[in-house]
Amino acid sequence: MSQYSEEIERRRTFAIISHPDAGKTTLTEKLLLFGGAIHVAGAVKSNKIKKTATSDWMEIEKQRGISVATSVMAFDYSGHKINILDTPGHQDFAEDTFRTLTAVDSVIIVIDTAKGVEAQTRKLMEVCRMRKTPVIVFVNKMDRDGKDPFDLLDEIEEELHINVRPLSWPIDMGQRFRGVYNIYEQKLNLYTPSKQYVTENVEFKDINSPELETYIEPEQAEKLRSDIELIEGVYPEFDVATYLKGDIAPVFFGSALNNFGVKELLDCFINIAPSPRPVQAVERMVDPEEDNFSGFIFKIHANMDPNHRSCIAFVKICSGRFERNANYKHVRFGKMMRFSSPTAFMAQKKEVVDEAFAGDIIGLPDTGNFKIGDTLTSGEELHFKGLPSFSPEMFKYIENADPMKAKQLNKGIEQLMDEGVAQLFTNQFNGRKIIGTVGQLQFEVIQYRLLHEYGAQCKWEPISLYKACWIESDNATALENFKRRKAQYMAIDKEGRDVYLADSGYVLMMAQQDFPDIKFHFTSEF
Ligand code: G4P
Does ligand 1 come within 6 angstroms of the Cβ of 144? Predict the structure, then answer.
């Protein structure tokens, strides 16, 4: 127990993730409504990048600019302090989302009932699985016709590789949607389409009682009874400990747009979702309730003003209490720093705060002191782990287009990479620099920012690569041998780690076969 225990235990820091259009923004907004953080629907600016704007990335950056304020939305609900971390909807910024997931203690996944599990959800869930993040699933848009709920649960289990346990169950769908039976609270929630108001619910412990027919059609009542019987037979009892280990995901059904099933989700969430969890540092495990402050930078958001290269570094507080104007150690620099205007994000406002606790996210104005993964502490030498880079999906050589500005270009590349815009690999054979991204858009962003913020001009040259794999081996001779044999394809990443650039899936498979002593990793953390 520490003096901050009470504050820390009431915190719930999480992210909502989904494939674009499943309803993440709508759900976020409804959660804020319950928290009293906003009063009317439609107040949350979508961080989603409109499809029409994909060719105009300046527009996208503008929209991302808007999203700084909504990057973290905090509110109080029922004695809890809720921190929702927003994640960019556009898949070209998936890397941002991956990093955000390192700063949360749990996740809510939104799935569109008609579309089921989609690509982006699958990818994000992989990250959650790697980190054993507890997950709750919200099946959205029940007011529309969708897949059979049992089929959908099977699909979730199969595609997301996680066991599920429904805690609410829909009564029909689409036009005939009548509501859900809340298995968790044993209540019947009847549906009335409404975008602003919260629906009433009825205590209903025994669905076998004939009273059920006074609320819903006889066929619907019969179906509900047999469905619930099947659920109780097929799915294990819900067990919070299993959920907290990331082994089972409770599932809720509802309609975010109609504000239906959202309160039930939130009420269950605050009960079962974890308060800040211990965080692994290279040196030791750090407990949130320790008295001393520690935290790490998981995101850096560049200022939109090109003449003024200042950023906001987002810090996840891992332990203790952060205080404005106190001295904290920037571990990588080994020097003490003071922050006079840390900001917190209450609902949609950004304001200077005097203190914040483990679980909270604060923004520190920065002019290039931080890079992603940096640790701040009260003085201890700590390095937090777990900010993995994933193998990019697109690669290009970056070349200098203005020989007079080589220095600016190198500085620009270095800083943009520290900010986590993309990944840099230096080919050890020819010394050329390769930028790896998850989407085409990032190349445009880099080129534009190099020019406008650093006065440097770059040009892209094609390179055909399939994946970048971080390699290691317990056998030093085998490692040397591999590096010699694949010399043309060997690179180092920003941290100097060995990376093998495989130019096709086949070549990679052969390499894995031919060099059994070499371990190939698709993320930089292993
Ligand atoms: P995202 O952040 O996951 O990308 O999704 P968002 O909340 O923006 O929702 C995508 C679309 O789905 C929106 O419609 C939204 O109104 C709709 N939607 C969200 N929840 C529900 C629901 O429960 N039922 C139904 N029927 N629709 C839902 P849009 O037409 O793209 O945008 P808008 O013009 O309505 O804002």
Answer: yes
Whether ligand 1 lies within 6 angstroms of the CB of 67 is answered as no
CA-closest candidate to residue 452, choices 63, 58, 96, 68:
58
* In the predicted structure, residue 4 carries a pLDDT above the cut 60: yes
Share of the chain residues as helix, strand and coil, in percent rounded to the nearest 5? 30, 30, 40
Residue with the larger pLDDT of the pair 101 and 98:
101
At 54 the pLDDT is 41
Pair 297, 100: CB distance under 8 Å: no
Ligand 1 atom having least distance to the Cα of 29? 7
H or E stretch covering 202:
strand 201-203
- State how far the Cα of 372 lies from the Cα of 315, in Å rounded to an integer: 10
Sorted by sequence, the CB contacts under 8 Å of residue 453 that are 6+ apart come out as 302, 306, 309, 412
> SS3 string of 471-497?
EECCCHHHHHHHHHHCHHHEEECCCCC
- pLDDT digit string, tens, across residues 427-478: 999 999 999 998 888 898 889 889 988 899 999 999 999 999 999 999 999 9
